[in-house]
## 1
Amino acid sequence: MTNQQNSGQLPASFRDPSGFLFSRGGILYRQVNRAYEREYSRLIESGLYERLVKAGLLILHVEVDKAEGTRAERSEPPGEHSRSDAAYKIIQPERVPFISYPYEWSFGQLKDAALATLSIQKRALKVGMSLKDASAYNIQFVRGKATLIDTLSFETYREGQPWVAYRQFCQHFLAPLALMALKDVRLNQLLRAYIDGVPLDLASQLLPWKTRLNFGLLTHIHLHAGAQKKYAGEEVNPRGSISKRAMIGLIENLESAVKKLNWIPRGTEWGNYYDLTNYSDAAFEHKKQLVKEWTARVKPALAWDLGANNGVFSRVASEAGPYVVSFDMDPAAVEQNYQVSKKAKEQNILPLLLDLTNPSPSIGWANRERDSFGSRGPADLVLALAVIHHLAISNNVPLPQLADFFAEMGKWLVIEFVPKPDSQVKKLLASRDDIFPNYTREGFEATFKERFDIHEAVDIRESERVLYLMKHR
Amino acid sequence: MHFAPLPYLDPGSGSFLIQLAIAALLGLGVAVRASWGKIKGWFGIKSKTEEDDDESTE
């Protein structure tokens, strides 16, 4: 949230001449520039806005008094193109509880974001409008649904014109989805390196040859990449134009290409370690009960479950009211978590992919377009259950550094200490020297006491483990 | 062809051309489906309504 708390224009919205985001008094606003007046009116008057909001596809907003925007008009102009653009309207979009990025989404999340984008485009075409961009970063998960958050993404559709966002859609959605489904699910991490989506020539090279037999992938990725190479830098002045009917055909074809892509975690590689915990039922229930009780006690608005697995404890915590972001580094666990959450229509859980030993950095222009994991915090409550041994032992992070890290991440901390006699830790130490003399209950408590007040320390029934409730000093 | 105002995203020359080719092909498909629906209509067979077929996002 750091960027959003500086009053002024947000660094992620500098590209758009139609308006920009700014924050004032901790509230997020979007300025609609004069240049965008006609498009904005059309969005509202055509009923498209209302229909999209009702379907959960577009973020809700209210128009506010323009005086609210005086700060915006006085602030730095967002770029050359807007200098002559005064504010037409100031709108206040609904707050998104946690901003996430496509490289943090599971396969199913990216697929739903792609389908939401196409569904919006189809509905827009019906009223003579079209999306002028198809950036995955314009989609956020709101109440569990993939939702467009950029209200200024619409332009008037002129029959004959191509879909200007076609290339972007293929790079941001189709290429990574195809790579994840047909090559390796971990290739979504290419999105972290390529902020404007996976280059199509790269996707084309990486995809298995058989994908050329799939009409959608053959055309939108392989031939598309070939055409890009062939006509690179050339000015095209084609005679043809794209009829509305053909445009709808194109969108529906992209939709069917996306729908055909699936990734189901199975086999020994993914997703069968959920049964491999060393917990007895009694221990599991005891832990659940403590998490529930303590979450209710500290009443967080935002909780982060770090190392959430498939989200069992995120769900327990969410019953006490907070919005829970449920992080795990295993794509299969995150996918399972998302599918459970989607099926149950949960509104306050957001499963995300995150490797705690290498969390999302700040990326983009001047490293300020997309916030790092840490700068989107702190949370009110951090859950770190059955995770400390992975960080301290597998990743060799000294305990004082772990205490510092957790202190930065949140105000309250529920942390489980997993001692050396625990079978999971024994496994981690089986193939290496024990170079962790301080990794004991006493060492852990002494270290964490330097940063936290320990409010509770409870031995988990039928286990070697201890659960703590601590407050950052 | 001239598009005004200029798009703020560069659609890319190659992307534009391939889109044109694919859309031409797919437009044909949509046209065939539409007339097929009409023909079925003559025989009193109702085709599925096109309106809001976005079940995945409803």
## 2
Amino acid sequence: MAWAATPSTYRMRLAPDAKWFVVGAAVGLAAWLALVPLGFLLWQSFLTPETAEHPAQLTFDNYRTAYWSVETLRVFGNSVEFAIGSASLAFFIGTVFAWINERTDTPFKSTFFALSLVPLVIPAILFTVSWILLASPKIGIINIAVQNLFATELVVTNIYSMGGMIFVDGLHQSPLAYLLMTAAFRSMDPSLEESALMCGATVLQIARRLTLKLVWPAAVAGFLILFLRAIESFEVPALLGLPVGIEVYTSSIYQAVQSYPSDIGLASSYGMALIVIASVCFYAQSRMAAAVEKFSTVTGKGFRPRVMRIGRWRYLAAATFATYLAIIVVLPFLVLVWCSLQKFYVAPSMAALRNVTLDAYRAVFDYPAFANAVWNSLVLSVASATVVTLTTAVLCWIVTRTKLPGRWLLDNLASLPLMFPGLVLGLAIMVCYLHVGIGVYGTLWIMLIAYVTRFMPYGMRYNAASMLALHKELEESAMMSGASWGVTFWRVVLPLLKPGLTAGWIYVVIVSVRELSSSILLYSPGSEVLSIMIWEYWQNGQSVELSALGVMLIASLLCLVLLERFASRRFGIADPAV
Amino acid sequence: MTGEAWIDLIASIREAFEVVLIVKSLCTEYPGDRGTAIQAAHDVSFTVPDGKLFTLLGPSGCGKTTTLRSIAGLETPTSGEVCLHGKVVFSSAAGVSIPPSRRNFGMVFQSYAIWPHMSVFQNAAFPLEVSRRKPGRKEIADRVMRVLRAVALNDLADRAATKLSGGQQQRLALARALVMEPELLLLDEPLSNLDAKLRERMRFELKRTQRELALTTVYVTHDQSEALALSHEIAVMNEGRIVQIGSPRQIYERPCNQFVADFIGTTNFIDAQVIEETVDGRCRVGTPVGALNAQCLDRLPRNEAVTVSVRPEDVELSEQPPEGGDRDTVCVGVVDAKAFLGEHLDFHVRIGDLVLLARAHPSLRTLVGERIFVRMRADKCIALPATSAAKA
């Protein structure tokens, strides 16, 4: 049998190839997105405010104002107090419920696990607003109810306080803490505990000398993530802290930018402080995560964690879990629904029940900017999700598949935006494109850039997981079959990654729709998105319309989350926790 | 020149023309930890004649898969040359490296790498669809069905690839490699993922297909019986280097050092010392059990320390004194232990301080502790240099 010979183009070493163009473009994009705004931010932090009379001058004053005044000490103290408080509360709640659900024989475990993911879809701003409606001293339902019931003037709860901020933010982060700790408990090899049991150790000894020590790195890493999230949090400090003068870094940045003339230099130096804090946390977190990996020895076979029998307590545990879910999901949502059905906000009563109306929904639909905001949100979220997914697919491919020197750098580069708090990223991008005159400032494009930068790390996490699960030989066999790199990537790699890519894509859509802290510094009339519209409603005191919009937004995000769950469960992709 | 020399010369010239694949001093490195380079294949050279099956055999980590992947172009060697049909496919000196997608080599991977998002037909049609001179739809269908029929998968053409059993996946991987009518077929442990029974059957299938198509093939395996059963020629590799190249029989019966003797099959090693060197590859060595006649490949000087290798099936046992030829060694031992393994019986025979493993027919029923005669033929005892592969 004669075998056909190939054509005679035999001398082509590293000929220009589609591969290198695509790879180069992806690397360039990642580097531009991650590094350039940071550089501009640093540069701007050394300049005085630019006004019509005075051009900007080089100065250290911003840092002096930001770090050598009593005011600053207060901001720093508030930030740390708020972040530690919120992280501790979230961590405590999350750990308790994770332990109950993973290590005891509490009933309805799988239902609880599924439901605990629901709160993740409620945007922080809506969560905060709903708690204002519930617990503010003047209009809060809780206070009014108590006052009516006992005929007193006593204010039971004051949400406008450090305690209130910690409570709301801690509650809002607690589902994330729950997820992190669930993962930690699950990755612990039960045979380690079992072998200790066979050695004759008591349950208490095992808990103290084994379980705690094994779960320790994961717990510290989880706590650091929560701390990071709290210190970056913008909505809660802005809505609850600013009215009563409790300032943290994020709200100070916002104040500095919104003041007239806006003091971008000062905001930038605050921003640098946040980035430094975040980097330290992030570094410590990654060290801890490395320790977690060393400890987790799950082989995947016969994995059935030992479950503690807690007898009658199991019903109490289940009831507590149900109450918790009611507090963080049902209660806020119901308050928003109630509020959205009124003409103006009143506490629930029989009298108010008679005035139920859909006017608020009508008002939202009639609002001139509504259609525009929906369209903007839709376009932005779909576009950013698509760009993020495709870019990070190529980046992940380079990191996991090639032996290119410096590919670890690329991984870090693409994950760098994790260290930018949303508000700081917005600030950096604002500064950057004020000076780089490519005409994106004040358009949807600048917001797209911000979203893509901000969510690139999420895309990396989603893709890296599925890329690692993809056997290398699947690609190599395509190459041996005569397919070029482009054809292999398009016809083999991408289709095989599709489930993971889809889940990641939907996830980025969800977080893009929720995004507020970057958008708030970048939007301009005409480029408002839904979260900005909610923010504006709040600034105008239109809480009824806000609630109506919020109810619709939560409902549609919920549908998206269910889709994402479906996509990732079907293909067994774990949630990227951060 | 004598007539015989002429015949030899003509034969070697003819062979040179028939050689399809030439691999010349190939070196491939991997980046290791902390910037060091790990030499995975070192100075690997061999040739494969037209239509022959050549096997790279060795323990895991010996560099056999790296060598195969270097030929495929999936790894870039640091130096060396690969030529196919006289055309340079890779050459570090000339700066030539054809990408794997242009080499037109068929390859079957250890994991089979069947694409789960395609059907059986689509998997097999892929190489034709992506080829630069893409045939028409009808021709693709014809060629795919022909190759699927050859591996008896034509009835399953529309089935999802994930619904195939292990053996079917292996055949589909082979079909996919064959459909492009490759100039060279590369097989990377294609049978190692199958269970024992199926492996044996597929071994014969594979051999039949290769022999029928007379397709030049490089085969990688760590399974010595697979290598012995399939190959025209075997290269035994260890620690990145080729240790010995030869036909299956040569490799088994005339191992060149302790590593090969030990890796291929089972063997007894007896420490010895050369007493007397005789001509034509024979020698006489002193061992703890007395003097022994043996074969040697290299010339061994007197008093050189050597190791004698003798296969268990060549340690002949009998209850009655055997009639030995003048070059055979006969001695008396005691049965130390024995194990019944069904098709044969393993004896541990103690002769002085030495314990030999012997493989006998199950009909031999000598009891443990009883006396037994041992005979070893001179041409089955191989004297190997003691130093060459002591680490193996």
